[in-house]
Amino acid sequence: MVAARKAEKQTIKRHTQHAAHAVKTTIARHYTAYMPAKKHHRVLVWVVFLFVSISIGIQMAYPIDRGLPLASVQGRSMGLATHSQMAEAVVKAFEASKLKLTIGKDKTVEYPLKLAGAEPDTEQMIAKMSDYPFWQRFIPGSLFWQSVQLSIVDVYYANKPLQAFATARSKELTFPSQPARLSVDGGQIKVSDAVEGSTVEAKKIVDAINAADITLGQTTIITIPATREKPINTAKDLEKVRLQAETILAHK
Asked: Is the dihedral of CA 21, 23, 27, 30 positive or negative?
């Protein structure tokens, strides 16, 4: 009985060794068939294989809720940043964002963006900095394709505060025309330029703000459409009068 069991174990051992040898022979045959003949070429293939394997392994292990390596807010790196750290950076940059509304070169007003009823879509901006689709993780090096440099605010506006802001700014940006004027200063004739009048509708301010891409953490300049009113005269119209005045002043 003992001898039979011993013989059975030896038989199993021989079969196992034979199977292992057969597998080893098969692998060696395929390895020789598919690998380059030259040693340094084989080394190069192994280097590429290891690089690809390690790269994909790292990408698979990269946390789904952390900032991507090249993500940033206003130049501040968000690589591996947590959700709360990214939210803090976005809110801080939003607080520094401003609107500058202009009527050509004649009138400019500047206010914090939040005064216009703006609210940042913080979750949307965080998603941009941390979104790394699963299928892309299988592509070697794709982790460093995700260069999210957040510079434009994802923003929405509360209707009533925006309307109130636009109404107040329309009054600031509406002004009458000013004609050109002659004045004497220290014996010199000076001509002040004429200024066109401006009439701005609150609705056009709302439309212009809604259509603008707001730069995060900086001042965004928006030119507001206005109805312009021509002045009654210009500096050119006063040129003849200026020459006459200079002639009179030239007499002692």
From this structure: positive
The dihedral region occupied by 196, where left means phi > 0, alpha psi between -120 and 50, and beta the remainder, is: beta
Measured CA to CA in angstroms, residue 195 lies from 105, 174, 181, 204, 243 at distances of 10, 12, 11, 22, 22
CB 117 within 8 A of CB 165: yes
Give the residue with greater pLDDT, 189 vs 50. 50
Q: Is the pLDDT of residue 199 over 60?
A: yes
CB atoms near residue 190 (< 10 Å): 11
**Whole-angstrom distance, CA of residue 185 vs CA of residue 189:** 7
What does the mean pLDDT of the chain come to? 82
Residues 40 and 118 sit within 8 Å (Cβ to Cβ):
no
pLDDT digits (tens, 9 = 90+) for 64-123: 899 999 999 988 999 999 999 999 999 999 999 999 999 988 899 999 999 999 999 999
pTM for this structure? 0.72
In this structure, the number of other CB atoms found within 10 A of the CB of residue 67 comes to 24
The letter for the amino acid at 127 is A
Distance separating alpha carbons of residues 193 and 177, to the nearest angstrom: 11
Beta-carbon contacts of residue 128 (< 8 Å; ≥ 6 apart): 71, 148, 150, 154
Token pair 């946390």 in the structure block, residue = 63
* Distances in whole angstroms, Cα of residue 91 to Cα of each of 73, 114, 213: 10, 11, 17
Token readout for 79 is: 């690589």
Give the rounded distance of the alpha carbon of 72 from its chain centre. Answer: 9
pLDDT at 158: 95
